[in-house]
Structures are given as structure tokens and as C-alpha cells.
Amino acid sequence: MSFLNKFQKTVVFLLKALLYLCLIGTFFVIFGTEFEWILRASRTTAVLLVTFCGLEVCLISVYGGYLIGKLKSKPIVMSISLATVITDLVTHLQLCIMNVNANNNPHFIYEAPHLLLLVICIQIALIILFTYFGNYVYFTINKPERCCIITSSEESLNNIVEKIKRYKKQYCITDMVHYSTKGVFDIINSCDTVFIYDVPVKEKALICEYCYAKNKNIYYNFEMSDILSLGAKSVVLVDKPLMSAVVRDLTFEQRFIKRTMDIIISLAALIVCGPLMLVCAALIKLEDGGHVFFRQYRATKNGKLFKVYKFRTMKEQDSVNRSVTDDDDRITKIGAYLRKFRIDELPQFINILKGEMSVVGPRPEMVENVDKYTKDLPEFAYRLRVKGGLTGYAQIAGKYNTSPKDKLVLDLMYIEKYSLWLDFKLILQTATVFLRASDSTEAFSKHKKKYHFTQK
Fold first, then answer.
1. Domain ranges of the chain
2. Dist. CA 171–CA 323, nearest whole Å
3. pLDDT per residue over 172-219, tens digit each?
4. Which 3 state secondary structure label does DSSP give 293?
5. CATH number for the domain whose boundaries are 145-221
6. Could you point out which of 44, 291, 386, 454 has its C-alpha 20 to 30 Å from the C-alpha of 299?
């Protein structure tokens, strides 16, 4: 076991390499039974191989790779499976195109779909096997890290502790203390990892410096200074090392490309999803005879108001402007399914086509929430520097019950790190929301377990 511990990174790398080789081999060996020419060394085979490998690597970098020891097995399986299925579809289409020639098929035919299905099934089985085995090996070698949570109140403690407890194989919570507790540094000494949450800036800096000096792993929540550093870069002014955070708007080229993408994607989505939207509209109408669409004023760039379109998922007589809770009796039967799979959001492509929203951007909030959140968090107004979007960091990583501050941080992360490549990645990552529908639509709970400090 000690031997494996020394070479755990090598073990993970070898497992990753073997998995990728198995995925590639599965595709080419199985399709080789139908298309014998792809198993021979040729320029055509090389093109297919480059397409498969290149696309697989790019998509895995978008959806997350073989993150053994960092994530649970299920999200790893979903991300690699999604990347692999897309790669299979594109490479299979290219294979069918290349098979059109005078000696084989004079016309394009989408061939051997049964082999594609077989390839996908075997690959997903391999991904599941390698992921669960990899995590088993990793967590057999590495026991859970002893960790403590240092925070400023029991309310803040309850905001973070449940998140950590979901990773029982990674972390074992030994202490939960207030930052002013006597002996807090002795507690840090007894741990491997320290979570610092909602601690005042001065005290947080002191604790972080101590953890760094003692070689302790540190996790801490974002503050505005941390957000600024995301878009900053290091510079040397003569002999002075500085951090440069230059505030700038989107360039003309970026705005043009972003708007063009919005028009193309929204038009394509409305055409492709049109039949599904008609079915949803009919089901909503049949259930209670009410309106199909729910319209509500939302705030977007520079505080401009517009009416957002959504499929109505609640009873009309009870649709007041307040957040959804667990077992909310306002939600209709069909509305529960629409919300679970985010289908109620589809009409917002109309808003995008009209230019009121973008495909990617901060989630446009209810006017009531904007006033409320800005009062509690003045930085919330910074979200209005860009146009509201259908998807983004907050929509992908967050849930209905994600706290306003965490949503704010996720939105500001997008604004500070903005690039057209980031937009493209977030559009692709949106597919993961549907794969974890029950998690992403988790509502505000009325009954939550309360945690208390272990020492006072």
C-alpha cells in the first residue's frame, strides 16, 4: 500500500491512458468488422483516428476528465460518457462519408447504426468499470483527509457543512469552530485540510498564512478581491511585481460574434424543439385550461427590464413572486416534469432571438429579488454589466436553492473570465444539467438538519 501511495499519480495516469486506448480500440475494432479498410494502415484511417482522438480530448477537457479521487464516480461516468458518445457520432458520420467512393458506395448512406449502438454500450461499460475501479484503488490508498471548518456563525456553518459531507471518502470532519475560538491554531495543526468560510478578511488572511506555513490544504469562499484576481494578470513595473486587473467591455468583434451565435442557436433551437414545445403547450392547457406561458419582468444589462417567457409550471391563482420550496403545492403535475428537465426554459429562446437575452450570461433575476439581493449584497448590481443569459456558470453548477451570494460569485466568475471559448464550453456543458435533472432542480428545503460548533 505504501508503494502504491508513492506512485498514485502514475497509477491514475496509467488507468486513464488504458481507458482512452480501450475507447479508441472499441470503436475501430467493432467498425472494422463492417469496414475492413479502417483496420489497414492508410491515410483515411489516419484521418479517422485523428478525428476521434482530437475530438475526444477536446470534449473531455470541456466536460471534465478522468478526475479520480476528486469527484464521485457518477459525475465522472456521465462526463466521459457524454464526451465519448458525441465523439462516436461525429466519427461515425465521417466514416460513412469516407466510405462513399466508386469501389464501395456511389451515394452517401448512414451505415451500420447497430454497430454504433454496440460501440456506445461497450464504451459506457468500460467507462463505468474504469471509473469505479479507479476510485476504489484511489480511496483504498488514500484515507479521508481530516478536516476542520472555521467560520463566523452557525448559519454560515450550515451553508457549507452539508456540501462537504457529500464527499465522505475525501473528507472526515473532525471540528467545526468559530474563527475566534481559543486554540483554533491547535485544531488546524491536527488536521490535513482547513475549510474557511465567511470569515472576516483580516482573520481569514491570518488563518490562511498559518495554514500555508504548516502545509495544510486550504479551501475558502470568494470575496470581491478574489473575483478581481480571476481576470487579473501579473506584471512587473520596472522592478515592482504587481497584479493588473483592467476593466473592459466586450469588443465590437466579440459583441458581433456573440450576437450572431445567439441568433443562430435560438433559431435552430426553436425549429428543433418546436414539436416538443407544442406538446408541452397542449399538456399545460389540458391540465387546468390556464395560460400556456408565464411572463415575468426580469432585469438584464444596465438594469433594463424585459418580460421573460417560460412555460407555466404553477397554478395561476397562486403564482406569486416567491421562490419554490420542497413539495410546493403551487406546482402543477405537468409543471413538475417541465421543471425537472428544465423544459420550462425553452420559450426563452424567443427572448434570445429578440435580443433581450443571450444564450450565455448571468441568470436574469426577478425584479423583487434584484432589489432584495442588492440591499444585502451591494455587489449584486455588478451582474447587470452584461446581458442576462439562458445558461452560464450559475445555471450549470447551481441549483434553485443555491444561495444568492454563491450565484453572484458564479456570475461574476463568468464576467471576469469571459471569452468566446468560455461561451462555447458552457453551451456544451449545459447538456450535463439534463443528466442530473433531480440535483439541479433541488428546491429550498423547509426541513434542514442543523449543525452546531463542536467547540465554543
1. 2-141, 145-221, 252-440
2. 32
3. 999 999 999 989 999 999 999 999 999 998 999 999 999 999 999 999
4. strand
5. 3.40.50.11060
6. 291
